[in-house]
Amino acid sequence: MEGLVVFLETPNKYYPFESHSHGLPFIQLLPAQVAYSYARVFKQEKNKNVEFTEFARSGGGWRNSSYYELLPKEMMLDVKDVSEEYGYSTRGWKKKLLTSFFKVPKAFFDPYLNVVFKKILDYEV
Q1: Exposed, middle or buried, 112 (CB in 10 Å: 0-12/13-18/19+)?
Q2: Phi, psi at residue 40, to the nearest 5°?
Q3: Residue 116 forms beta bridges with which residues?
């Protein structure tokens, strides 16, 4: 059985400037308590009424996702990145050069991940 998993406009954890929730550079790479303090200092108006538990909750936005975190975790499933076949590709020769040099997926250097995975093999019978 074939299937697709699509992630669109998912903020990239490894892009240096987080633009999804707080707009602070590198906040997504910090531990929750440090990120909370950082956001409270530099985005005071936006965070003045935000408690730590609300900030750190799952889906809070400041963490973002990496390409590898989007991959299915099931060991009984093989997928292929078919993003380019569906019109999602990295633009710019510098990004393409970096992706080929570091041997990482093309979405790796984009601020937002637009990724389409296609199931190619399902081991369950």
Answers
A1: middle
A2: -65, -35
A3: 6
Angle at 59 between CA 11 and CA 50, to 5 degrees: 105
pLDDT tens for each residue of 93-110: 888 888 889 888 877 788
Give the Cα separation of 49 and 58 in Å (integer). Answer: 18
Q: What is the pLDDT of residue 111?
A: 86
pLDDT of 38: 93
Query: How far is 95 from 111, CA to CA, in rounded Å?
Result: 11
Dmax (CA) of the chain? 55
In angstroms, rounded to a whole number, what is the distance separating the alpha carbons of residues 111 and 114? 10
Task: Yes or no: say if 29 and 64 are a contact pair by the CB < 8 Å rule.
Answer: no
Taking the chain, what is the end-to-end CA distance rounded to the nearest angstrom? 11
Specify the DSSP element, H or E, that contains 18. none
> Does the reported pTM lie above 0.85?
no
Q: Report the 10 Å Cβ neighbour count for 99.
A: 17
Write down the residue that tokens 């892009």 correspond to.
15
